[in-house]
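Module 6 notes. Inverse folding takes a fixed backbone as the condition and produces residue identities as the prediction. Think of it as a translation problem where the source language is geometry and the target language is the twenty amino acids. Below is one complete input and output pair. Work through it position by position during the lab.
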């Protein structure tokens, strides 16, 4: 194996964000925050990754202040004194050991299943009230409600800056609220928030602009997007580079600094005729800093569910990853499951202690080590 060390270790500066290396922890929901307040283990969990050469941590999705924002219990809030105080402590812990951290601000939209919350009668919200089965299950958001939600994203971003986070990531991927506006499956609106692909970016554009206004010019905004959706891993929002460009251009113009192009296997070309993946195309088309992601440190391809794979060689595809980073196809690489099961995955790879790596197992999701 070619030493991955050199490819990982180059520092990078994106505006005010100075990262010591190219490794990012992918945002991963962990449900260890009873009543929305991160438990004391959460700060130790993030600190451990920062201590072990993860240059930038993107937190698990954190909920903006809206009654229907969440789809699971024990997901952290990003509002209210208690939750924000705890986030402030987490930021301090990560900073103490030289790490950088950004919260991923999130609204799950129509992914909320009311059956999981029998004590409340809060229905999911989305562009056209269409659920993951394609059925109309609740009212479409009114324009006033859309404006309120945009304000809530901006408030969350303002709090991120106030607490001392180093950047903010807007979750626009995987079929959650913002992505539901992008997708013609969920978005059947005939007003200014619906229409062709570029019109369907309007909600995201207004969120990004409001966030920019709330955080000022110096605070980096990361925007995560994907082709795949929770209910359809094969979904293609864009079918060729031209469509990708018309999708991304309004987001760039609105103020995104860093794109996080979420794919399930980083080595897969996105379009025919080039080996660039979605992140590679995003960089080529926008010139922005781009994070790639997908099955780093895992061998078997993800099968049907995101947590079902078999692993035996954690170094598979690492040469390819090094080449892509060295060629500048993308700038940063996010690592998800490999970092759940081994907080020291990066240092073990860098120092050749591959046999000491604790490889991912679904059971690791039950604990917060
Ligand atoms: C995720 N993923 C995810 N993505 C996101 O944008 N916000 C989130 O809150 C979560 N939550 C989450 C929880 C768990 C348990 C897993 C395994 C994944 C997706 C994640 O960020 C990443 O894109 C994928 O896991 C692919 O990366 P790896 O795991 O192949 O490196």
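Target side of the pair, the amino acids:
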């Amino acid at each position: 194996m070619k030493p991955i060390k050199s490819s990982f270790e180059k520092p990078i500066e994106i505006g005010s964000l100075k990262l010591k290396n190219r490794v990012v922890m992918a945002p991963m929901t962990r449900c260890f925050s009873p009543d929305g307040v991160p438990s004391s283990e959460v700060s130790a969990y993030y600190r451990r990754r920062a201590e072990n050469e993860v240059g930038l941590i993107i937190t698990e999705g954190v909920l903006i202040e809206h009654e229907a924002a969440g789809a699971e219990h024990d997901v952290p809030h990003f509002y209210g004194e208690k939750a924000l105080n705890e986030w402030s402590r987490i930021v301090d812990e990560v900073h103490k050991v030289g790490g950088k951290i950004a919260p991923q601000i999130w609204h799950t939209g129509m992914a909320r299943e009311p059956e999981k919350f029998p004590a409340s009668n809060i229905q999911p919200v989305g562009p056209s009230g269409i659920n993951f089965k394609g059925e109309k299950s609740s009212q479409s958001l009114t324009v006033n409600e859309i404006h309120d939600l945009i304000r809530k994203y901006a408030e969350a971003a303002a709090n991120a800056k106030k607490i001392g986070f180093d950047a903010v990531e807007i979750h626009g991927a995987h079929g959650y609220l913002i992505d539901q506006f992008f997708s013609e499956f969920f978005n059947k609106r005939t007003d200014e928030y619906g229409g062709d692909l570029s019109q369907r970016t309007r909600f995201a554009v207004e969120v990004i602009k409001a966030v920019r206004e709330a955080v000022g010019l110096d605070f980096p905004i990361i925007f995560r997007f994907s082709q795949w959706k929770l209910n359809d891993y094969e979904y293609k929002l864009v079918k060729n580079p031209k469509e990708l460009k018309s999708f991304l251009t309004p987001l760039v113009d609105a103020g995104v600094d860093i794109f996080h192009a979420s794919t399930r296997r980083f080595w897969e070309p996105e379009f025919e005729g080039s080996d660039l993946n979605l992140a590679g195309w995003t960089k080529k088309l926008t010139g922005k800093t781009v994070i790639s992601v997908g099955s780093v440190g895992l061998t078997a391809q993800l099968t049907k569910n995101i947590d079902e794979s078999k692993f035996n060689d954690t170094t598979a595809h690492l040469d390819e990853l090094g080449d892509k980073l060295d060629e500048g196809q993308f700038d940063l690489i996010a690592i998800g499951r490999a970092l759940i099961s081994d907080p020291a995955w990066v240092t073990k790879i860098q120092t050749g202690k591959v046999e000491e790596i604790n490889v991912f197992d679904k059971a690791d999701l039950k604990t917060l080590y």
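Reference fact for the lab report: The chain has one domain: 5-366.
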